[in-house]
Amino acid sequence: MTEPLSSRVLPVLTIIGVIIAVWYAAAIWMNAPFQRDLDRRANVTSTTMEFIGKTLSQPKPVVPAPHQVARNFFENTFLRNVTSNRSLVYHSWVTLSSTLAGFASGTLLGILIAVGIVHVKALDRSLMPWIIASQTVPILAIAPMVVVVLAAINVTGLIPKALISTYLSFFPVAVGMVKGLRSPELMHLDLMRTYNSSTWQTFWKLRVPASLPFLFTSMKVAVAASLVGAIVGELPTGAAAGIGSKLLAGSYYSQTIDMWSALIAGSVLAAILVTIVGIGSRIVDRRMGVKPT
Amino acid sequence: MSMLLRSWQGTGALILCLVALARLPLLSPEASAPFGSGTTAMILLLVVVGALASFLRMQEAALAGILFVAAHFTAWLLIAGLSGNEGQANLSFFLLVAACWLLGWRCISVLAEIRPKTGGASTALRLLIPAIFGAWVLILWEAITRGAGVPFILLPPPSAIWERIIGSVSILAADVRQTIFKAVLFGYAVGCAAGFIVAILADRVAFLRRGLLPIGNLMSALPIIGVAPIMVMWFGFDWQSKAAVVIVMTFFPMLVNTVAGLGASGAMERDLMRSYASDYWQTLIKLRLPAAMPFIFNALKINSTLALIGAIVAEFFGTPIVGMGFRISTEIGRMNVDMVWAEIAVAAVIGSVFYGVIALAERATTFWHPSNRGG
Amino acid sequence: MNTSPTPVVSARKLGLTFQTNDGPVHALSDVDLEVSKGDFVSFIGPSGCGKTTFLRVIADLEKNTSGEISINGMTPEEARKSRSYGYVFQAPALYPWRTIEKNIALPLEIMGHSKAERKERIERTLDLVNLAGFSKKYPWQLSGGMQQRASIARALAFDADLLLMDEPFGALDEIVRDHLNAQLLKLWAATSKTICFVTHSIPEAVYLSTKIVVMSPRPGRVTDIIESTLPRERPLEIRETPEFLDIAQRVREGLRAGHSYEE
Predict the structure, then answer these.
(1) Best label site of A83, B286, C211, C220, fewest CB within 10 Å?
(2) Which residues share a beta bridge with C28?
């Protein structure tokens, strides 16, 4: 990257600025009819500026203004006791814990299956097509059923959500790992053959290191999928806590501002998770001799 | 050369058979329609024949054929014997199912080793092997759920799901019409088109590209599905709100991939266009868009799955009384799991067909790309 | 000539036919050849003449379909299992996640050498190829020529008597190639190894070899075997001598006799 920092940051900031401006305009525009209605019933006439100010400070607006969302997000994140039911940190933690549990087991499962597929031909020919095909299927649709069915046999809380995250994150990891374990060039494999190296040695000294960059790339996809899985897993049965339940509660009671800040919390969580895996990926790439650009 | 092959699946099947023989009968004494002794003997005999055959050195296709018939016919006999006896199966029943499964595995292993001479045979094999595997998932599912009497709400057997699909074609069709033909297709078309147009704009205006690309990359990782309740609030319960979710979800992958694709043409090719004094649009249409096609199709494929997910999950937040997501969330509330599975099966088929159509279109358009040539 | 009783490589009526979708391809047919200990044998010919295939048969990377071949009196498979040769590929084939010294350590790790012995051998072989100061670098930090030298060091590290080199300098420019040729000769003199060397450059073959095997395609076969009369000590200037040019002329005639230019 030879460009100066400013030439990369400035365009992003500009676009964000435009988005916020459009957001405000939309908030005024969309909230105006209700506000007008309100004013007429209360028999108030207000100047344009006053009117705009009121559209941006409704308690349950159609489109909450950015500053309303920001204030709500800030209050619920930093000012509340983290054990409080209204704290976003608390809800994020509930979602995060099942995301991480599911992500870890999904990654492990994906790696194991990939190792099996690469070494057992029958698995490669029979299972691999299904794994590829199942990526085209909206698996997320099973989520409510998993939660409800498990609740019927008294399994609730973290495990059902973690299961959903597991199966969502397992597919990309399995596919990426198969690609990675198969990535060594023929010449590298021939080289190992001239050393009369065992399958086990070839696996550890060649296939595993060659696959690590692929693993981390697929883990980035997997961790985002895990989070979506955990959030959707919180939708049915009206789970008591978590970002998903916060979204659902918001939509039931038309608490739009709460809904928006829950959405922001989910996005922040996703950004943090993907960034952490991304940093890991960058370190691995460097460690594995991928030429830095 | 020894006449015998090693076959751990065959050994395993024989051992399972022996244990099963010691633990007969197949069903518990209370079963209303127990297996006849002739059927039981036939089942055992078939498994033993299949297992012994797997040790013999013979033509692979013949061996696979014997194993195929032995494994699947026996499995069919076992499952057919279950009707009227749900939940009454003994240990020996499951041991024999496991033995059949080992023979099926052996069959797959044998087929996987065949190197067919003609292209047609190799395609057939490529389809047959996963088909057998898929069949075994269903066989085990059926045998275990019905044999052990797994509670219906926990996991209904595939046969019950199939009956439910056949019995509710009209409901399923109405749901598909609402969710797929209204929300998904409209949202997918608009989202992809918008992503594509903005990508072209971003390509023309470097400032826009530098600003949009990092945001687009970030957005692809975010749980955008969370906007569903907001969209439902804005656009109402009908399909328009679902289409809006689909638009938001499909927009960013298309944007990011198209921008990446437009940068994919080689410097040498671009210099060539320059030497012809070709203008921006000529270069775009003659060189850069064709070079970007693999990327654009990649986005179209990713989006096909995302669109289905978006529409179905958005329906969890409220719909009129029709739609796949609506059906899933209400039927699960009534514990009609077979209907939920039926919807999921339909969604799976539609997802695969959707993806398949795009893959075919890709093959027709980007036949020149290394990933589509030969092999 | 110190011809030992068992030749290092001995091929009799060796043939290899690939079955492809377009029918059988005769990569090698009726190859008879003996390589003695200490020889530097070059295989030269146009592409498709089977020179690389022959090297891969020696290395047990391909199996011959007819005839016989023995390496130090063993079958290729036994020879590979007793790790009796080092192989240098067309590309350096270094592992990008390992430093140069770790790349050289790779065969030693696989063959179970102790840590101290690995260290000692790495130092020795890096000295042999003049890369002593680069042990901690990653492959991509080195030039193409240096990478190929590192891959030669890797092939030398476990002290196999036979070195199989498949166009090792084919991807390098001529200036670097001249330099590496001279270095290779020095290395050969210092280690007294037997080298089988595949090339498509006539000057390279003549400059390096004690024996030049000329091959031609369709089917891949040996058309001429030329014993070099050049002395073992060869400065780069030897390439201007009439003797050198004579041998080069014979090679060229051998290639022409195989109709290799007309097809």
Answers:
(1) A83
(2) C16
What is the token pair recorded at B310? 């978006």
Nearest to B249 by CA among C176, A145, A92, A140: A140
Spatial separation of the C-alpha atoms in residues B53 and B7, rounded to whole Å: 10
Instruction: Determine whether C195 is exposed, middle or buried from the number of CB atoms within 10 Å of its CB (0-12, 13-18, 19+).
Output: buried
Identity of the residue numbered C154: R
Measured distance CA(C18)–CA(C26) in Å, rounded: 7
Residue of chain A whose Cα is closest to the Cα of B137: A127
Asked if residue C27 lies in contact with residue C18, where contact means CB atoms within 8 angstroms, the answer is yes
| DSSP character at residue C222 | E
CA-based nearest residue to B258, from B309, B311, B303, B308: B303
Beta strands in C89-182 (DSSP E): 162-166
Residue carrying the six token digits 């087991």: A105
Q: How many domains would you assign to chain C?
A: 1
Phi, psi dihedral angles at C215 (to 5 degrees): -125, 160
pTM of the model: 0.83
Compute, in degrees rounded to 10, the torsion defined by CA atoms B296, B300, B302, B308.
Answer: 160
Residue C189 lies in a domain: no
> Is C107 close to A289, i.e. CB distance below 8 A?
no
In a domain, C62, yes or no: yes
- Tell me how far apart the alpha carbons of residues B168 and B327 are, in angstroms, rounded to a whole number: 12
The answer to whether residues A257 and A64 touch, using CB atoms and an 8 Å cutoff, is yes
Structure tokens at A205: 């000294």
Q: What is the pLDDT of residues B179-227, one digit of tens each?
A: 899 899 999 999 999 999 999 999 888 888 888 888 888 888 888 888 8
Burial class (CB in 10 A: 0-12, 13-18, 19+), B32: exposed
**Residue ranges of E strands in C36-65:** 40-44
Nearest to B353 by CA among B308, B291, B319: B308
H-helix or E-strand spanning residue B194: helix B185-204
One digit per residue, pLDDT tens: chain B, 375 residues?
456 677 888 888 888 888 888 877 878 777 777 788 888 888 888 888 888 888 888 888 888 888 888 888 888 888 888 877 777 888 888 888 899 999 998 898 888 888 777 778 888 888 888 899 899 999 999 988 888 888 888 888 999 999 999 999 999 999 999 889 989 999 999 999 999 999 999 988 888 888 888 888 888 888 888 888 888 888 888 889 999 999 999 999 999 999 989 888 878 888 888 878 888 888 888 888 888 998 999 999 989 988 999 999 888 887 788 889 889 888 888 888 889 999 999 999 999 999 989 989 988 887 777 666 543
Residue A209, chain C, CB below 8 Å: the answer is yes
CB-CB neighbours of B375 under 10 Å: 5
CB C25 within 8 A of CB C17: yes
> Do residue C87 and residue A194 have CB atoms under 8 angstroms apart?
yes
Look at residue C173 and tell me if it is in a domain.
no
Q: Are B92 and B70 in contact (CB under 8 A)?
A: no
Look up the CATH superfamily of A88-287.
Answer: MetI-like (1.10.3720.10)
Tens of pLDDT, residues A240-257: 788 888 888 888 888 888
Mutate to test the interface with B, among A140, A142, A154, A167 (most CBs of B within 10 A): A140
- Contact residues on chain A for C90, CB-CB shorter than 8 A: 187
Report DSSP state, residue B27: B
The structure tokens listed for A23 are: 């957001």
Residues 6+ apart with CB under 8 A from A17: none
Q: Tell me the shortest Cα–Cα distance from A195 to chain B, in angstroms.
A: 27
| C-alpha dist (Å) from residue C260 to C24, C202, C219, C263 | 20, 14, 11, 6
Domain of residue C244: give its range: 1-84+199-263
> B310-328: string of b/e by CB count within 10 Å (b at 16+)?
bbbbbbbbbbeebbbbbbb
Residue of C nearest to A193 (CA): C61
